[in-house]
Specification:
Elements: E1 13-18, H1 21-33, E2 37-42, H2 44-54, E3 58-62, H3 70-80, E4 86-90, H4 95-103, E5 108-111, H5 116-148, H6 159-171, E6 178-181, H7 188-198, E7 206-210, H8 216-224, E8 225-226, E9 238-239, H9 241-244, E10 249-253, H10 260-272, E11 274-275, E12 284-285, E13 289-294, H11 298-303, H12 309-315, E14 318-321, H13 332-347, E15 353-354, H14 356-364, H15 370-384, E16 389-390, H16 397-400, H17 418-432, H18 437-444, H19 448-459
Parallel strand pairs: 1-2, 1-3, 3-4, 4-5, 6-13, 6-14, 7-10, 10-13, 15-16
Antiparallel strand pairs: 8-9, 11-12
Helix pairs in contact: 2-3, 5-13, 6-7, 10-12, 13-15, 17-18, 18-19
Amino acid sequence: MMAPALPTDLKPRVLVVDDESSILDSLRILLKNEGFVPYTALGGKQGIEKILELRPDIVLTDVRMPDVGGVQVLGAARQSDADLPVILMTAQATLQSAMQAVNEGAYYYIQKPFRNDELLAILRRAAEHRRLRAENTVLKQEIRKHERSAAARPVGKSKVWLDALRLAETVAPTESTVLITGESGTGKEVVARYIHELSSRTDNAFLSINCGALPESLLESELFGHVKGSFTGAVKDKTGLFAAAQSGSFFLDEIGETTPSTQVKLLRVLQQREVIPVGATEALTVDTRVIAATNRDLDEEIKRGHFRADLYYRLNVIALHLPPLRSRADDIPILADSFLARSAVQRNERVKVLHETTLDALMAYQWPGNVRELENALERAVILTDGDEVFPEALPERVTARRAEPLVSDRIPSTPTLEAIERAYIQWVLQNEGGNKSRAADMLGIDPSTLYRKLARYEA
């Protein structure tokens, strides 16, 4: 059982367990004078009872006691709360006993007699350890609660992103086929899953496949299934993904990569709601909502004869376009915070924060790989960062590299345009502010996100 996390402004509660009253009295006075809230227990048996009763933040226990030893107290404490720091005291310390104590889960092992300042330093470190673990526990609970929420909204606050989400929310309760377009890495599968979670099919399966990742023969087997003996290696019947997604949703990513033969069979699914497994003679009825996605221009693919127009019209009942990250720069700080929080949970670490210059670098970069590239860049930065703050040096070089071409040219046209004047003025303010974009935005009287967009446009 986990003890409830205490507010950080409360004094740490320390339970001292010993079989000598004089030691308990002296430690109680010492701890109270040094800002702790001390409790005492005479002997190991009473110590275990008070651990369960008081839920202390730290346990300080003697090892050798006549009734119940300190190692047993340690075991009871760990069983009650796996994160509870337990410090063992002993007058007969050996390297072997110290190693055993640490292996059993002790936070520290201190030898009697000890100096007061030595003990207090250990207790303060244990209190800080306890506080950080409590913070991480709360953070994990909040993130997992968010991730468990069926309708957790994809992260973003920019207008273009919110417009796309509102359309997704509008069509989600319907049974209409949705075609999501956008560059690679813009979050097409995230939005497809969001549509599924908001639909009446949310309690059933959401399956997905990347149509460009498999050769034609294997893709058709995965989509439609096959019967035993239909081809070499088909040693048993296989249920296709359309059938496996019965009453649920099926996400066909990169559908523009499919061959004409596969496109004919996909058209049959959309028109007649049935599939014929490879090698079978009878069709199977399927009740699956199709959500497709592509980073290709399907209109252009149709002109080239690479994509069937009739399939396109069946897919494009609801067209939903996701903007590239460079056109929704306002979302970069929010996305970064979300990725850093998720990484902290996965790595069981404190949440790292971005230094101001790091955020500046993220905002100035064009992100050709979009949200996926941002997430990968931050994952790399987290791995390379030892402390709690992420600096630009931890980012990939492509993100932090500056273009040799300045924002404005030294050559001023004889009749400058309004944009040229604006660019020159912004450059002048940036230079006066030492390149600090936040202060420059204040001097210009505009929102920082507006400044970032202007700089991104000038560098395009």
